[in-house]
Every structure is written in structure tokens, then in C-alpha cells.
Amino acid sequence: MEKEYALNIEDLKVVYKTQHSVVHAVNSLDLKLEKGKALGLVGETGAGKTTTGLAVLGLVPNPPGIVERGSIFLNGRDVLKMNKKELRKIRGKEVSMIFQDPMTSLNPVLTVEEQISEVIRTHNKVNRKEALEKARQMLEMVGIPGERGSEYPHQFSGGMKQRVVIAIALACQPDVLIADEPTTALDVTIQAQVLEMMKALKEKYNTSMVMITHDLGIVAEICDEVSVMYAGHVVEHGTLEDIFDNTRHPYTRGLFDSLPNMEDRSQRLKPIKGLMPDPSNLPEGCAFCTRCAYATEQCEKVKPPRFWRNDTHYVECHLYSENDIQKGEVLKNE
Ligand code: SF4
Q1: Can you tell me which atom of ligand 1 is nearest the CA of 250?
Q2: pLDDT tens digits, the chain, 334 residues: what are they?
Q3: Helix axes 112-123, 158-170, angle to 10 degrees
Q4: 294 lines ligand 1 (CB under 6 A)
């Protein structure tokens, strides 16, 4: 059966142009999100994950940001070809984004129910009273008593505020939810609660979700597929099983090796050596070549092609060829 995509990004390129340099934030990015599924977009800070999310909502700040090429199909329509009015219509209704820090997402001078009802009234023909009623229902749904809707953001804890942000994002039941590190600013115990709640809401509404994170634990918990992003580009993509049990890219391997081993606490963490390349001066070939233990001259000069291990799993790395992509022995023997 042909797969149906809620979001399909192809060959996206986003740059930030300043007087002295051009920052290549997103480079030939491909990303596909199946309807009703959750995709983990994983990578270090500065990999271009947030810019990708902003591009989907048509919110890349211009200037200095410019979407240079590519397409972003949301429910079959290209977001990059929409005018401002069309973009306003889809935000909140077809696609919503939850940002990392709830403090900056909420308006301090409006009650939380006013903020939720504002989104509801933008997209539905309801009067103020009906919208407020629905806003209180949304609060209940994210575990906050409805009567607290008349309070202001500063009266809520960090975890509660993030729940309010999630209620706003889900108020109009968007087809696609982009969650940008939604639990990073929260305590560990609250993180687990918020994640659990997001998982339940995703199931309830059959929302398709992009979970932007650097935490592979969150991916394992909530996602169906994973795209590993490095220097603005997806270097490996697959299902959870492909990525966790059949890792192929040296960078993905590095991400796993830098995680603490809960069974053997005496083991030292192995962080990936070095830093991500300067995005205004990316290497000609593979962007990971300055940190990769397997880098060759070819890696420095030539962009690695894409090799498919199966229908769901690909990697872009010179270590492989069409024939030996199945084996992956090189990484296992390290
Ligand atoms: Fe390492 Fe070369 Fe593969 Fe890049 S292409 S990840 S430098 S082996």
C-alpha cells in the first residue's frame, strides 16, 4: 500500500545571510512523516533542527533567513508557495509547534484560557463563551483543573506552563505537531509526565508528530522513525529498529556511544570528539569528516551518496557501497 505523508520535505535549503557571512543552516534536507506517526529529528544543538521546524510553519525570520530552494508539502500542498493569509490559516489548524521554553511562548498579560480560546476562535466559528468553554476542556485534557484557566502564566509552575503550551498547540487538533525539545526546560520527573501525556494525546487525535530532540531516550519512548541530522542534513534515517539495532552512520554511532550505560556504570562516557563545523564554512565533502575516525581523502572532497539498507533505512556515508551496506561490519568492529 502506498504510504500517505502528512509532511514531506524535499531538498530544503535555508540560509541566514549577514553582512559578512552566509550561514548554511539547512542543507538539502529530506524528511518524510507518515500520517499518524511520530518522527524523531535528532542531532546536536546547531544542527538546523529548529530552523527546519520554523520553515514548515513559514516562520523563518526574513531577514536574515532565506529559504533558497526545496518543497515542504503539508497535506499535499507546498507551504513554500503559500501567501501570508494562507500561512496564517494553516498555523494552529494544520500544523502547530511547541517551543522549548514555555516562558517565551505564553503572553504574560493574558489569562491562559484567553490564550487558548484565541487560537480556537481564529480557526472556528464560535463565540467568545463557547471558545472559553472549549479552552477549559483543553486544560482538563492536559491535566490542569479547568477553573485555573482564569489565572495568568506566572501563577503556574514550569511543567504546568508547558502543559498550557501543549493545550494551545492541540486546541484545533492540528494534523501535524512539531515539538521542539518540549521537555528540555523541565525537571526530569515532570519531563516523564509531559511526554506520557503527549503520547496519549497523539494516540487520541491521531496527530502526526515531529519530535525535535537530542535525547535518544525520548525517541525510543515516543517515536516510530528517526532522522539523524548533522550540519543541516539528514545523514541516516530509519525505523527505531533500523537506527537502534542496525546503526550505520559513524555520527549516529557516536550519539549512542556518548549515552551513559545504565548496566555498567563504571564505563566512561565517550563524547564525540571535536565540534560541528562552522555552518558558514562547511567542508566540501562529508560535513562529519573533521570528527570521523574513518574519514578518508574522498570523504573530505566528495559528498557521500545515499545507500538504502532496506525500504525504510538509508545512510549517507562513503564507508558503504550498494553491496556491503547490509553488513555494517566496519562500525561493529570498532
Ligand atoms: Fe566518516 Fe567519511 Fe562516512 Fe563522513 S563519509 S561519516 S567522514 S566515513
Answers
A1: 6
A2: 778 999 999 999 999 999 899 999 999 999 999 999 999 999 998 899 999 999 999 999 999 999 999 999 999 899 999 999 999 999 999 999 998 887 788 999 999 999 999 999 999 899 999 999 999 999 998 889 999 999 999 999 988 998 999 999 999 989 999 999 988 877 788 888 888 888 988 898 899 999 999 889 999 999 999 999 999 999 999 999 999 999 999 999 999 998 877 677 677 778 899 999 999 999 999 999 999 999 999 999 999 999 999 999 999 999 997 767 766 555 654 4
A3: 10
A4: yes
Does the beta carbon of 317 sit less than 6 angstroms from any atom of ligand 1?
Answer: yes
Which cell numbers in the block locate residue 273? 570528539
Measured from the CB, is residue 287 less than 6 Å from ligand 1? no
Ligand 1 centroid to 69 CA: how many Å?
A: 26
Between the CA atoms of 74, 79, 83 and 85, what dihedral angle is there, to the nearest 10 degrees?
Answer: 40
Atom of ligand 1 at shortest range from CA of 300: 7
